[in-house]
Design brief:
The chain is an all-alpha fold. It is 79% helix and 0% strand.
Length: 160
């Protein structure tokens, strides 16, 4: 893109072009902010990823312990180490932790999706501004390429 000002350029188109360039700079800065926010949320998502794997193992362990209880053989597994009430209370506590992680994963996932949507929408805005800027530049270039009709001034005879 040309940054020099043509002295013969149409001032209205120059103002429009400058305004569009400013809008483009601002939109690009905002896009960079949105992308930075998305990278931050992606970092949170990755941190949750390892915890999700661990909690999946806990979920499987809870299911196995519940199956032992359902089949009536949990005493064989636990012996005298824990009462049925203690086992049940611990299962409720662990299930609560699993549910808490699930809520956290959902919340981060929703924020991540929203951030991606903001980036995509802002890229669309940038595309529109770039199209408008290109149109303004092309319009000025067409105007500059127009043929100017020049005539010598002749005095016309008087007619009655």
């Amino acid at each position: 893109m040309v940054d020099q000002v043509d002295p013969g350029a149409n001032p209205e188109i120059l103002e429009e072009e400058q305004a569009l360039r400013l809008s483009l700079e601002q939109a690009d800065a905002k896009r960079a902010d949105f992308e930075s926010e998305l990278r931050s949320i992606d970092g949170e998502w990755e941190a949750l990823s390892s915890r999700r794997v661990q909690y999946e193992s806990l979920e499987q362990a809870c299911c196995a312990i519940e199956k032992l209880n359902d089949e009536g053989v949990s005493r064989t597994f636990w012996g005298d180490r824990a009462s049925d009430e203690q086992v049940l209370a611990h299962l409720v506590e662990v299930r609560g932790q699993i549910a808490g992680l699930g809520h956290e994963v959902t919340e981060v996932g929703e924020r991540r999706d929203a951030a991606r949507e903001r980036v995509e929408q802002h890229l669309d805005v940038i595309d529109y501004i770039e199209d408008d800027l290109l149109h303004a530049i092309e319009q000025e270039q067409r105007r500059q390429q127009e043929w100017v009709v020049e005539r010598a001034e002749n005095e016309l005879p008087w007619r009655l």
